[in-house]
Amino acid sequence: MIDEDAPAAPAAGAPRPGRSGAAETAGGPTSASPVIARVHVEVEPLHLDRPFDYLVPPEHHVAVGSRVEVLFAGRRTRGLVVEVTTETEVEPSRLRPVRRVLGEHAWVRPDELGCLRWLADRTGAPLADVLRHALPKRVIAVERAAAEAGWYPPGTGRRPSCDPAPDATLLEAAWTGYGAAGRELRTAVAGGAGSFLWRPLPGEDLAARIGELTQLCLAGDRDVLVVVPDPSSPAAAGVVAAAGDLAVDLRGDHKERGLYRRWLEARTGRARVVVGLRGASLWPLERLGLAVVLDEANPALKERRSPRHHAREVVLERARRAGGVGLLVGTVPSAPAWRLLRERRVQPVVPSRDAERAARPKVTLVPEDGRARTRLAAEATGALRRATRAGTYGVVLAARRGEGRALVCGRCGDRTVCPTCASSLVLGQRGAVLCEGCGWQAPRLPACPSCGERRPVPLAAGAAWLGRELARATDVPVAVLEGYAQEAPPPPAVLVTTRGSVLDTPPGPVGAVVLADLDGALRRPTLDAAEDTLRLAVQVASWAAHPRTRAVLPAGGEVVVQSREPEHHAIDALVRWDPGAFWRTEVATRAELRFPPVAVAIRLAVTSDDPALAAQVAAHLPAGTDVLGPLPLDGEVSFLLKTDDRAATLAALRPLRETWSKAGVGHRLDVDPVDA
Hints:
Elements lengths: L35 E6 L10 E4 L11 E6 L2 E11 L14 E2 L8 H14 L3 H8 L5 H10 L18 H7 L4 H13 L2 E5 L7 H14 L3 E5 L6 H10 L3 E3 L6 H13 L4 E4 L11 E7 L16 H12 L2 E5 L5 H8 L4 E3 L3 H7 L2 E6 L10 H12 L3 E5 L9 E3 L16 E2 L5 E2 L6 E2 L13 E3 L4 H11 L4 E4 L11 E5 L12 E6 L2 H5 L6 H13 L5 H4 L7 E6 L5 H8 L2 H15 L6 E7 L6 H7 L6 E8 L2 E8 L2 H18 L3 E5 L5
Parallel strand pairs: 6-11, 6-12, 7-9, 7-10, 8-9, 10-11, 13-23, 14-21, 14-22, 20-21, 22-23
Antiparallel strand pairs: 1-2, 1-4, 3-4, 3-5, 15-19, 16-17, 17-18, 24-26, 24-27, 25-26
Helix pairs in contact: 1-2, 1-9, 3-8, 5-6, 6-7, 15-17, 17-18
């Protein structure tokens, strides 16, 4: 039977709040006094984001972390017990009783509750939103089946053992390119603690390396969490295969019953390894020793619903609190990760320059020089032809849908930029142009500074168009891949792919990679356009250096980059294979605008047409917080806040947000937005 009691919206008559400042305890009070459970009810409104007191009947046993069913505003609702006490400011005769205790296990342990509260504070979200992300729906039939199998309630079954650690000599050989930092990472995984950011060698076998770290951690009787951005990740599949029966794999489309079983296996310690997408970052493990985020700068790792957390921050904090290792993996650090590096809060694990130069593919830069948009240069078509003749794949990275919204001059092709923040401009209503970054807008496009033209055109080079063009020009199969889990034809073939099909491992040997439309991605009207474009370009270019490729082409494949902006520092960093150089230039540019990683960005979107809205927001912000906007967009009014003190800005906004909550004014808050 499935417990389908969903959280309800509050109405008049909700219980009065008790004192919530007393210390939390896992045990109960003396039997002579009534037992009071402080319950954080799973309801949405921000102004109800606090515990409420309920009477615990004698037949129920509750502790901190118990999930219970209560009446709230006249409706049955779930809630989490955050304190057990005998003190209350409500007359005991007026307290409503806990109706039901959901399960014989702690859904959240006291130390985990502290982490969930940290996440709510960091994102400015109600704790109820965090709980809905962290806790699955209960399925009683799963508990019964687990009890019959002998591993439920917690403590019933025996903790599974694991294989010995990998051979130390083989480990040293596999990680030799990373020097002393690689040894420090392995030592920490074996039984220590720390936060690391690992930049793999071009073409590195991620599945093998992460599998080795997983085995090393398990051998020390500690558990492993691996979070990946895409469900088809070969590296994730490798970890699952290496862990065998000790792993739960959350990447599939699991029904409520299967999902709850897997969660319960992790909660009870039956599972030692959890692998999944961004939601897995909040899954419990008995003894967390290693928490990994693969491709940490990937936008897919950012939650789209409140609390809008990023797996990066959650994983690092969980590992820190557990005394384990937090490991971010990526070719080009995100702005928040770069800030952590500069503040020395994470330790870099990077290959030596000699090892990186030996492993990287050959990159050829072809300036566009007025060539018609979306056409491939002779160097690009030649590389594709050589790749297919060698029996390998030729890969062309195309712009995904929506990346062509950035405007360029219809005559000379120069990018149109915002005069305030230098982001790309897009078309608005009735021919107007606007900047989605800071809110600047104008009724018409300013004259192009290069040629004086006022006619903008969108920058677009879709995968379908490129696929048709290539199919007419080649005698091998051409496949357009625009999403996860699409099967590629066997080589030789040309693959036209968008970002959704770029995985951590190529589908086979790749003899050529053509990056024909990086300008479209670089010119996207978002703050992270440059770093995200470089990250994606390095990831797909690494396919040309993968062991699958070198098994056919010992010298590796070739990479051809076409660009109208060959001097752009992201293009230069790609050619030199030096993400550090990119960030050194990018940070200097952003410092002038006070954008991340120099400051923290917070996106506030409000569903309101109140003309005084901007003044209300400005009045509640502390000194030192800059505001860009308001920007009316899709029925909302959006503000971008820039601050050096995230906590102070969120705290200052809290009273205004609670006022909106009571009045029914919808609003969204996003700390470190990936689309700012």
